[in-house]
Amino acid sequence: MENIWTIENLWNAIGTVLRNWLAGFLPAWLVTLIMDLLVIVVLLAIGIVAVLVLSFMERKVAARAGDRYGPNRWGPYGLLQPFADAIKMLIKEDIIPHVADRFSFNLAPVIVTVGAVMTYAVLPFGRDMVAANLNIGILYFAAVGSLSIIGLLTAGWGSRNKYALISAFRAVAQLITYEVPVGLCIICVVMLAGSLSTQDIVLAQQERGWFFLLMPGIFILYFLAASAEMIRCPFDLLEADSEIIAGHFIEYSGMKFALFFLAEYIHLFAGSAMMVTLFFGGWLGPWLPSWLWFLIKTFVVIFVFMWIRNTFPRIRIDQVLKIGWKVMVPAGLVGLAITGFVDKLIADKLIAGVVLFICNIGLIIGVSYLMGRAQRRKEMAAEGAALR
Amino acid sequence: MYGTGLLKGLSVTLRHMIGTFVTDIRKFPRRYFTDGNHPTRSPEPYLHGTFSIQYPEEKVPMWPRFRGPLVHLRDPETGQPRCTACGMCERACPHGCIKVEGEGKGKERKPTRYEYNVGRCIFCRQCVESCPFNAIELSRFYELACYDKDTIWDLPRLLELGDKEVITEQGQFWGET
Amino acid sequence: MSVQIPPTERLRTDTIEINMGPHHPSTHGVFRMVLTLDGETVVDLEPRFGYLHRGIEKTAEERTYVQNVPFTDRLDYICGITNNWAYALALEKLAGIEVPERAEYIRVILGELTRVMNHMLAIGFLWNDLGATTFTPVVYAFRERERILDLIEMAAGSRMMPSYIRAGGVVADLPEEFMPRLQKLVPHLKRFIDEMDTMLTKNEIFRARAVGVGVLKAKDAINAGITGPVLRASGVKYDIRKADSYSIYDRFDFEVPVHTAGDVYARYLQRLAEARQSLRIIEQAMRDIPEGPVTSLPYKQLSRLKPPKGEAYGRIESPKGELGFYLVSDGSNKPYRFRIRSTSLLNLTLLREMCLGHKVADVVTILGSIDITLGDVDR
Ligand code: SF4
Ligand code: SF4
Predict the structure, then answer these.
(1) Contacts with C40 from chain A: Cβ below 8 Å
(2) What's the pLDDT at B40?
(3) Which residue, by CA, sits nearest to atom 6 of ligand 2?
């Protein structure tokens, strides 16, 4: 038996040893069952740990952007702050408004969280480290990821609050809109990779170079659409606290609120991880073990999301929909056509990559020019409007 | 090009983020490094770098003119309060937070009761300005939060607080005589 | 060509009515708007205020003239200095009081610092209302405000409630450290305004949100008595510092910026430009400030002040617009009538007209761009 105990292979090695040990005294089906349950538990744990880390990171980034320190009281450098937050959330009173629709009110956080956690199943955390190497992994991710809309709608409806209801409207409108460009971008990637499996997509990038370099235009499109999907700024209209206070979770408190919070950050982590998988070569990288590379890249992407959140205001709902349908979907379709043609017509991978890159830059410039022109026209019309 | 404005905004926040870490590194081993100085008081106003004061550990010294609660001053020779219960402050206060009662005539007049309701006071300093006997001044205490409603301070307490202050003369820091 | 849908086949929709406020995070205080929404579009809006009513006008009739100074701080608590100034101006007119030269310069310096501070804060909060969720521009604005407030505290003893300007001059001369600090602060504030400019002005999201939103026509603005940056952003060049020059503003070289779009974006640009002009004025005042006495009426005389029978109206260009105090004297030491022409209340009057037809999200933006202080609205 060759040495399985490398850092690269650490987690798989633990799994194998455990499996062998269990197989010694248990029937095979039970071993499979236990191992699968164990994987689920580990994924949940990753989810919760990621949330703790991310909530801390979010606060620190927000503080640092505003020339502050952020939490620094509880533990060294405030590192224990997330635990304090979690405990606070858990021991808070659980309030159910007495006019609320109790069934949907209670169900909503569960749907949202389950929908979020399920996306972890197909994330390739490292070489051979994916809970379920589905051959339709990406499709699964997109499908399960949008499950939480139902939860948001239920929450908005169930809490019988007008602000929550507005948020639920927005949730449905926005998430349906942005499913389309996300789907289009994913199709582009899938076309280049030739597979729907997340592992294969990563491996394809080993061969062709990171897709982010090949298709910058598609990447930007995906980035924006994904941030709308993840309800991150500047598309965080559902929880716009300056307009509709907190949107769908306005009536939630305690544990249920914590679940929404959990789901939000799990989505953030999963979305960033998927972006790394699709465009930044997943766990590829020299020297360091693959899972570490994956985490590093994911956290860099998450940092960019937080950075954006700390800089930009929010877009208005009608503008969100307008950008979605009038800009992103057409741009996505053009991108799809470009990718399809280039991939089919040019056999040489290197030349195809270069052509794809040039076409994408053209796409960026074109879209940017058209949007700039529309904006300039609008501004020209606004000039002197008060005197007319 | 559409989008450059967004990138510019991002660059500003990034510079701020880096700036805070630069401050951290520069003062590395210490955790509290404003040295009791409010960042607003730094000799060179800076654009980048942390701006927090970590309150209970770091406290900002108040400016000499800071208007905190009222204190009474002592006569440096006798150690007695200078107040003669003339009642000018009581009349001058827009909020009626002062109640004075006294006995005796002329120079011998002394306050028997002096009540100052710090809960109502708005620290406007009109009582001080009206006092003809140089007997009161506003102090620089600012931690006034308390758990009870014990907001009426009497003369001994006001004198005691006055002893803790460096103020010896009314209008010492106000360019008055 | 649009297709006409017969009314019977149209989707039957209902409007919903929501209460925005009085404890909504972005109503800038305890302010309440009853919104009628059709989907997300505002079809009706009814502002309701008075939650912060403290009866200052009536209370002031029971107090002597000097006792009323601290009350004026509490009107528009963002810019206490200018409130004091307007009251002092009215009283000076009423009683015919002269103000020493140096006091006028001190007033101008502090007043313009207040303007910078108010405008920076207004921009910061506008961004907060636009949804900069983590307050970054607000925090930057607050940081600079803290520096300005620190100077005010050094001079007046209190950050937000200075009570520093009184009839006849100012309470006390500036402390020694004041001028060196101000000399360093002014270039810094310039740098800061430039930074805000780079960070915010060209931002595409901001422009998409702000351009063409909440347009206020010049005609309507004049009819409703709207003043200040909001009026000037609608293309009316009306600044009391120029139109009815008070104090020593005729000595300074500054411009009154105007923008003609009348929307949220124009108001933002207006504030930025005005803050720059204020710094220009401060620089000139710093250069020219003479030595000398700072008050012609010490406290002991002022507290016994009995203005002759009559009335006076003193007005200044406060950061938010025209702030006026109307005093009627019956010859006693208390004002017979103490009337405040508050800026925020009048600027708020056209809120409904500005908001109709826009989205919910725009309501908070428009409210933010008017820049009200509820202490000033309700008094
Ligand atoms: S500071 Fe003002 S409110 Fe306080 S006691 Fe003196 S006069 Fe009254
Ligand atoms: S005015 Fe001065 S002397 Fe007179 S009662 Fe008040 S504190 Fe005492």
Answers:
(1) 166, 169-170, 317-318
(2) 67
(3) B89
